[in-house]
Amino acid sequence: QKWEDTWFFSLGGRYQASDRTTLSAGVGYEQAVSDGGNNTLSPDGERTIVGLGLSYECWSGMVLAASYAHIWYADAEINVADAQGTFKGSMKNSLDIVGVSLTGHW
Fold first, then answer.
1. Do residues 31 and 6 make contact, with C-beta atoms less than 8 angstroms apart?
2. DSSP state of 45
3. Rg for the chain (alpha carbons), in Å?
4. Residue 42, SS3?
């Protein structure tokens, strides 16, 4: 497997909707770390990420937060040849991430 250096770009922002409520959003783009063409275990593709968040100060010093992110992966091509034959294909993938936290500050 040949691994390569990559770039990751992102942009995000926060909006203070009220004294207790904050909204956030962001978008990102990440290059693939390998072409994945000769590996069926970890085919890789470029990624686009979009995330949303909401935080609410429930009590003084206690913040309840929730977030959601979706990641779209570019199709990863697979092309493996060995003594047993050739395997060609592609992998399509996406990922959803949900998070909830309760944080205390003192």
1. yes
2. -
3. 20
4. coil
Ordered per-residue pLDDT tens for the chain, 106 residues:
677 788 999 999 999 999 999 999 999 999 887 766 666 666 678 899 999 999 999 988 899 999 999 999 888 778 777 788 888 887 888 999 999 999 998 8
- Of 92, 11, 83, whose CA–CA distance to 44 is shortest? 92
Q: C-alpha 68: how far from its chain's center?
A: 10
The whole-angstrom separation of Cα 30 and Cα 64 is 29
Spatial contact of 79 and 88, defined as CB atoms under 8 Å apart: yes
**Sign of torsion, CA 28 34 35 37?**
negative
**Residue 44: other Cβ atoms inside 10 A:** 23
Residue 36 burial (C-beta neighbours within 10 Å; 0-12, 13-18, 19+): buried
DSSP H helical segments within the chain, as ranges? none
